[in-house]
Amino acid sequence: MNDTIPPPMPAAPAPAPAPAAAPAAPGSLSELLKTPDRYSLGIVGGGDVGPRVALALAAAAAGFALYFFAAGFFAGWRVALLDAAKGAGVALFAFALCLPSLYVFSCVSGATLRAGQIVAAGAACLATAGMLLAALAPVLWLFAVSSSSAAFVTALAVLLAVPAVWLAVRPAIGLQTAGGVRSTAGLRLWLAVLAVVALQTVTLLRPMLAAPEKPAEGEAATAEAAAPSAPEKMFFLEHFVRTLDSSPARR
Description:
Layout: H1 29-34, H2 36-44, H3 50-72, H4 77-97, H5 99-108, H6 115-146, H7 150-167, H8 170-177, H9 185-204, H10 220-225, H11 236-244
């Protein structure tokens, strides 16, 4: 009788784990568009938010510039280039003016974030709006180059911007999901204030659909000697109505 104990069988190798999908880079624009909850979680998680703010503001400025560039083709490519610079200025200037209200409205919403994190959240909302405007720019360009009505192009530009402003609240909703704020009501109100400030800034920088007016040849000497006159003060709704009525005022 053989009492030899057979050697143990070798253990089967453990199956290799399935490779996980590579996540988007932290704070990337793709992450902001596809998974704003995850983007906002990165803001709440702490760390340096400076790169997020810089990237978001650059995306916002580029998106606004492209949208205004498309509208400016109504009056030719020279006006389009000028409008592109104005568009970037509208985004950054309006955001800078609304920074104090962003902080206050975020605190009213129950934010437990640092000031830098609040700025990063606001910049994310602005970047979302800018990227949506950039996506709509080709549609606006088509009507700008094929229409002879400044009133129609103006109305279309405002109409196309509505969904961009509406969806810009997505990072704020993600911030609530991540626990950064208790409610999005304050941030929604801030976005409304930001939209109004942006519209008034557009009015301040008019004309948008025409080249700046130049003095007539006979008035050149008088215009050079005289001090430059300030543009007419106007509320943005009045400016919008005048444009729709084809008023001779600057558009």
